[in-house]
Structures are given as structure tokens and as C-alpha cells.
Amino acid sequence: MNKAEIPNWRLPSQQVGEFSITAISDGYLGANLDFLANIAPSEAARLQLAAGIREPASIHINCYLVRGRGRTILIDAGAGGFNHWGGELLTHLALAGVQTADIDTVLLTHAHPDHVGGLLNAEGDMAFGNAELVVHQRELAFWEDDGHLGKASERARGNFLFARRVFERYRKNLRPFATDDVLPGISAMPLPGHTVGHCGYRFESGARSLLIWGDIVHFPQIQIARPDVTIAFDQDPLLSAATRTRLLDLASSDNLMVAGMHLGALGFAHIKRSGSTYAIAYET
After folding, report:
1. 162, 113 in Cβ contact below 8 A?
2. Is the pTM of this model over 0.90?
């Protein structure tokens, strides 16, 4: 059986009322456990290996395909090969029976390159030519602020320039939002810290709910057990850790199903709490 013949049911999916939500892998990005703070790299590696992760420093990239209420929505677009990261999104979308022209809306959790890289094709044009690009106005304003660009490190400057290129390509299709209601049945949840406008998207339909929480974690087996552990990609590490702890408490207390861009290939999970300790329980 070749890839094109793999049935859709093998892609991790959840039905939330009228919404069918599918985890679409873009592949992996190379990182370093030295990027983590508040934990020794040796301890981070031990936790990863104990969880059966063979490449402890590798970070999986998910996007989410949402179909329902007459829409075909993509939440984030992966790295698209930026810095040799990811680049598998279009192949896996095809396995779900979706072509780029079918996507009518792209919701962004934030504008780091492993989330917006796939919005441009090899020629630097819009990869999703029929899509409205929806992003929180605080996130858009941050990346387009020349003052922030002027203070950025060399690595961060590259991220700024790339995000600006994406926003410029999609300018006519760009919709910044400020309120929580983004689309019927879909609300934005501000989750600041990782970036200033970082947000998740909560789906409510048919008495079911699910939260796609963006980059609340990059290493779930580490940061769910140890929410104080931050990563160098966080713009505000202390706020990021506080947001993560608050959200883990909410998800565990409400038995809320969560999904995330670096949650792992299975794509969906619940958070379990025992005393003051959290653990991840994947949906399989």
C-alpha cells in the first residue's frame, strides 16, 4: 500500500459536534535540550528516554485540519522546510483528501517560523491562495513593530523578517482579530508568554469541547510534569510558565481534551492531575 492509499482513519482525528478535527504532521524540527531552562539537559534526556522517545531533542510539528459548518480550516501551517524543518504538511493533507485550494481559512496560534513557514510555497507565494489568514492583532502588531525588530538578536531578526514576508503575501486576505469569538463555534483563548499574541482555539459543539493550545509545550513529557521548565523560544519565560500551569490546571479540572503543535504525533490528549503533579494521557 502506498501513502496515497492510506485510509483517512489512520490520521489522528476527533469529532467535536459538527467539527471533524485531524492532526496533520509537518514532520520534525531539530532542537537542543540546552534550550531548556530550570532543568539539566541530562535530566531532560532521561525523562525523554524513559517515555520511549528515541531522539530526545527532536520536536514534532503538528497542524490541525478542521472540517465542519461548511468550512475547511487549517490551524497553523508548519515549518514548510524553513531551516530544513518539517515540510511534510502538503503530503499529509493529501492523505486526508485535502488540497491547498480547499483551505478557506488559516487560523494562526502565533507567527514563529515553524507555524507560518508552510504558508509560502517554494516560489515565496501564498501556498493557500483561497484562504483567509486569521491572527490575533497583538501578534501581528508585535512582528510588524520596527522597535521590536531593532532590538532583536540575529536569530530573532530572521524570524521577524520571515513573519513580515508571510503577512505581506497574505495582506489582502489578512484578518486580525481582537475579540475571543473568531468563527461560529470557535473562540480564541489568549495564552501569553510564548509570544505576546500567542493564543489557542477552543471548539464547542454538540456538548463537546476541545482546546488546540498552540505551543504551551514543546517537550510534553518534560513540561507537563515540570511546567516550570521553559524554552529559549519563549519571549517571556516566567509568563509562559505561569500560563502553562494555569492551563494544565484548567484542562485537568475540566477533563478538557487538548491538542497542540508539539504535543506529539498522536495529536490529542487529556491532562491528569495527581496532587500537584500533572501527566499526559494520549488519545489512541
Report:
1. yes
2. yes
